[in-house]
């Protein structure tokens, strides 16, 4: 089934007669102001440059200053505030909350909800003037890590409330909306939910059918919506609801456009279904929510009629790093359990950790955790430093973190053997809880395409700039010289800003592998753009591999940055981090090379074609096409 992702790119990419690219406008208008940073505006105001490391990667550029040194954005005061919160939250989850019981009873007890409210857990990032704790993204990450280590079900209840439920008010609300709603949401007196998904609209968020029309007196909208799988849906008092609204465009033609509404349960016509029975995150409530002829005051529109799709995307972009943070907590806890078991359990006369197979598992689990944690704090710090262009990195952190956590907890169960399979060990619940993380908040498949296509579009825009500049060379010497230099540096294999100057000497080999991977990646993107033009949008076998390569290279750069900091600052774990960084970069560079080879290989193209055929044969048959070996 074709996925309608990035229909917009279709409008933007045009293939010229000789397959050169022309791109009519930058796709991410919403964040354009951010990615034209002051640095770039000063001398390069003719072009759109991004502060995103990942985006620049698609041009084959390693923009070192976006990722080095590994950021630490907390002031002394912010560190003190955070330290004062960490212990009580940790204590609460180890001594008061019972995750097993919550899972079995499929509910978070009132006393736990009340205690969370007293700790300020429902308003972590809400400014203090509205009763919140006023934490920044990095502080938030540190606290949700603790939640993720102990009870992912509670994590979802808290996350659905503040990471997406009322985030629209926090990010885009008017002063009146903030004043009216945030104080009771921050204390947990009122609970919020995010209502985007519908029976016929999951990944294709732009296709929602819910509708709202302005009343004849212009005072309110009449909202009709049916939203499914809504986290907190059955318990929320306030909903951020997305619906199509007829809006006149600049030519006066009316078109349906997604609009975001703040809807109170108290408004007449809001009802919800029973809690869904799920595989995991059982204590969090998931329910269908219905809005029947609900009168929503016009003051409750977020960011104006028609701005809802961007509001939804930005809410999701803004919260995704939180998943990586929470899941790094989950991994830390599971790895501890695996280590405890491996260091005590004896088989064949030896502790099992003395066997190479267990050693490899533990080392890989630690590396996956190290990468996820490094990504979470790199993204949170960049957000705290004011970057608005972090959506690719945030999506990467969500994809990587959710797959890493699944892998780590699965391996923790494997190390614990039969014990791991027993409910009493607690890992079984965690594995069930984790499964949804690869599906919600943007499936990992959609997010891989999002990473690849957003990056490709950015790279395509730069080709277009060069193309335009070539038409007026005298006025664009700077741009042409720069483009030429970048091309030459790729060909001769020297990056403009050598990574070697930024990494610790012990990591030079890893840095060199990362630089080569980045350059190879840029060349591959360019050649795919030239080969496929706008048709690249439909080449999901290729986009998948390109997305994977981007994720791996981003992982390489964040661990290089973090391990460099550890070595430069003589952290007690510096040598251990150096080893992890070296192993990670060496293996990741092999994977990147394999992904990039496969996007260029005709043998692989043949395999992609064959797989597409196999799939359509299966769809046609409605079942497996091959018979049983016994013939019946
Ligand atoms: S909530 C439901 C989650 N649903 C999704 O995530 C939906 C996934 N789908 C999409 O994201 C979009 O539909 C995609 C694009 C990406 C597929 N940032 O034509 P287009 C702009 C900024 O490409 P489409 C849940 O699961 C774009 O530039 N802008 O769009 C709850 C263009 O703008 P312009 C973006 O092909 C789970 C315009 O939009 C972005 O239709 C509970 C149209 O673009 C973007 N990302 O689709 C979790 N994308 O026209 C609880 C597009 O100006 C939380 N655009 O050029 C847990 C938290 C963790 C724990 C915490 C513990 C405390």
From TrEMBL:
<dbReference type="InterPro" id="IPR049448">
    <property type="entry name" value="ACAD9/ACADV-like_C"/>
</dbReference>
<feature type="domain" description="Acyl-CoA dehydrogenase/oxidase C-terminal">
    <location>
        <begin position="306"/>
        <end position="452"/>
    </location>
</feature>
<dbReference type="InterPro" id="IPR006091">
    <property type="entry name" value="Acyl-CoA_Oxase/DH_mid-dom"/>
</dbReference>
<keyword id="KW-0560">Oxidoreductase</keyword>
<feature type="domain" description="Acyl-CoA dehydrogenase/oxidase N-terminal">
    <location>
        <begin position="79"/>
        <end position="189"/>
    </location>
</feature>
<keyword id="KW-0276">Fatty acid metabolism</keyword>
<protein>
    <recommendedName>
        <fullName>Very long-chain specific acyl-CoA dehydrogenase, mitochondrial</fullName>
        <ecNumber>1.3.8.9</ecNumber>
    </recommendedName>
</protein>
<keyword id="KW-0597">Phosphoprotein</keyword>
<dbReference type="InterPro" id="IPR036250">
    <property type="entry name" value="AcylCo_DH-like_C"/>
</dbReference>
<dbReference type="Pfam" id="PF21343">
    <property type="entry name" value="ACAD9-ACADV_C"/>
</dbReference>
<feature type="domain" description="Acyl-CoA oxidase/dehydrogenase middle">
    <location>
        <begin position="193"/>
        <end position="294"/>
    </location>
</feature>
<keyword id="KW-0472">Membrane</keyword>
<feature type="domain" description="ACAD9/ACADV-like C-terminal">
    <location>
        <begin position="505"/>
        <end position="622"/>
    </location>
</feature>
<dbReference type="Pfam" id="PF00441">
    <property type="entry name" value="Acyl-CoA_dh_1"/>
</dbReference>
<dbReference type="InterPro" id="IPR009100">
    <property type="entry name" value="AcylCoA_DH/oxidase_NM_dom_sf"/>
</dbReference>
<dbReference type="Pfam" id="PF02770">
    <property type="entry name" value="Acyl-CoA_dh_M"/>
</dbReference>
<dbReference type="InterPro" id="IPR006089">
    <property type="entry name" value="Acyl-CoA_DH_CS"/>
</dbReference>
<comment type="similarity">
    <text>Belongs to the acyl-CoA dehydrogenase family.</text>
</comment>
<keyword id="KW-0496">Mitochondrion</keyword>
<keyword id="KW-0285">Flavoprotein</keyword>
<comment type="pathway">
    <text>Lipid metabolism; mitochondrial fatty acid beta-oxidation.</text>
</comment>
<keyword id="KW-0702">S-nitrosylation</keyword>
<dbReference type="InterPro" id="IPR046373">
    <property type="entry name" value="Acyl-CoA_Oxase/DH_mid-dom_sf"/>
</dbReference>
<dbReference type="InterPro" id="IPR013786">
    <property type="entry name" value="AcylCoA_DH/ox_N"/>
</dbReference>
<keyword id="KW-0443">Lipid metabolism</keyword>
<keyword id="KW-0809">Transit peptide</keyword>
<keyword id="KW-0999">Mitochondrion inner membrane</keyword>
<keyword id="KW-0274">FAD</keyword>
<dbReference type="InterPro" id="IPR009075">
    <property type="entry name" value="AcylCo_DH/oxidase_C"/>
</dbReference>
<dbReference type="Pfam" id="PF02771">
    <property type="entry name" value="Acyl-CoA_dh_N"/>
</dbReference>
<dbReference type="InterPro" id="IPR037069">
    <property type="entry name" value="AcylCoA_DH/ox_N_sf"/>
</dbReference>
<comment type="function">
    <text>Very long-chain specific acyl-CoA dehydrogenase is one of the acyl-CoA dehydrogenases that catalyze the first step of mitochondrial fatty acid beta-oxidation, an aerobic process breaking down fatty acids into acetyl-CoA and allowing the production of energy from fats.</text>
</comment>
<comment type="subunit">
    <text>Homodimer. Homodimerizes after import into the mitochondrion.</text>
</comment>
């Amino acid at each position: 089934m074709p996925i309608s992702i990035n229909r917009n790119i279709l409008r933007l990419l045009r293939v010229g007669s000789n397959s050169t690219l022309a791109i009519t406008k930058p796709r991410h208008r919403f964040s354009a102001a951010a990615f034209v940073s002051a640095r770039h505006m000063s001398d390069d105001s003719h072009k759109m440059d991004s502060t995103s490391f990942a985006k620049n990667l698609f041009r084959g550029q390693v923009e070192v200053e976006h990722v080095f040194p590994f950021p630490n954005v907390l002031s002394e005061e912010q560190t003190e505030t955070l330290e004062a919160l960490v212990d009580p939250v940790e204590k609460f989850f180890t001594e008061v909350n019972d995750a097993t019981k919550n899972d079995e009873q499929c509910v978070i007890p009132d006393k736990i909800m009340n205690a969370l409210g007293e700790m300020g857990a429902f308003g972590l990032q809400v400014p203090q003037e509205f009763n919140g704790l006023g934490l920044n993204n990095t502080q938030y990450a540190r606290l949700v890590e603790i939640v993720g280590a102990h009870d992912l079900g509670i994590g979802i209840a808290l996350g659905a409330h503040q990471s997406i439920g009322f985030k629209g008010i926090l990010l885009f609300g008017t002063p009146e909306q903030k004043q009216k709603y945030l104080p009771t949401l921050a204390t947990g007196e009122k609970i919020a939910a995010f209502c985007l998904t519908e029976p016929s609209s999951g990944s294709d968020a732009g296709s929602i059918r819910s509708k709202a029309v302005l009343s004849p007196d212009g005072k309110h909208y009449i909202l009709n919506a049916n939203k499914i799988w809504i986290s907190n849906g059955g318990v929320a008092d306030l909903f951020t609801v997305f619906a199509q609204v007829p809006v006149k465009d600049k030519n006066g033609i009316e078109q349906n456009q997604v609009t975001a509404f703040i809807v109170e349960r108290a408004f007449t016509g809001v009802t919800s279904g029973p809690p869904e029975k799920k595989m995991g995150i059982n204590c969090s409530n998931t329910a269908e929510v219905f809005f029947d002829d609900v009168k929503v005051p016009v003051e409750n529109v977020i960011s104006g009629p028609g701005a809802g799709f961007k509001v939804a995307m930005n809410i999701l972009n803004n919260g995704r790093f939180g998943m990586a943070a929470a899941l790094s907590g989950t991994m830390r806890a599971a790895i501890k359990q695996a280590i405890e078991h491996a260091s005590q359990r004896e088989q064949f006369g030896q502790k099992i950790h003395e066997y190479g197979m267990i050693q490899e598992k533990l080392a890989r689990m630690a590396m996956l955790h190290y990468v996820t944690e490094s990504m979470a704090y790199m993204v949170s710090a960049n957000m705290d430093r004011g970057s608005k262009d972090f959506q690719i990195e945030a999506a990467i952190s969500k994809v990587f973190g959710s797959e890493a956590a699944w892998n780590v907890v699965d391996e923790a169960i494997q190390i614990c053997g039969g014990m791991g399979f027993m409910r009493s060990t607690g890992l079984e619940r965690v594995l069930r809880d984790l499964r949804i993380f690869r599906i919600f908040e943007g499936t990992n498949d959609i997010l891989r395409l999002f990473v690849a296509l957003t990056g490709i579009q950015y790279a395509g825009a730069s080709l277009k700039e060069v193309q335009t500049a070539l038409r007026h060379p005298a006025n664009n010497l700077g741009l042409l010289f720069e483009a030429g230099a970048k091309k030459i540096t790729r060909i001769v294999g020297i990056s403009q800003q050598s990574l070697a100057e930024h990494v610790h000497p012990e990591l030079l080999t890893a840095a060199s592998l990362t630089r080569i991977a980045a350059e190879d990646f840029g060349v591959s993107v360019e050649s795919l753009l030239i080969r496929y033009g706008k048709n690249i949008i439909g080449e999901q076998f290729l986009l998948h591999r390109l997305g994977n390569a981007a994720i791996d290279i981003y992982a390489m750069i964040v661990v290089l940055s973090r391990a460099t900091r550890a070595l430069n600052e003589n952290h007690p774990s510096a040598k251990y981090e150096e080893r992890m960084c070296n192993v990670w970069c060496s293996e990741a560079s092999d994977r990147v090379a394999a992904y990039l080879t496969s996007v260029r290989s005709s043998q692989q193209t043949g395999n992609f074609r064959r797989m597409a055929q196999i799939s359509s044969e299966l769809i046609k048959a409605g079942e497996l096409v091959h018979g049983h070996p016994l013939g019946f």
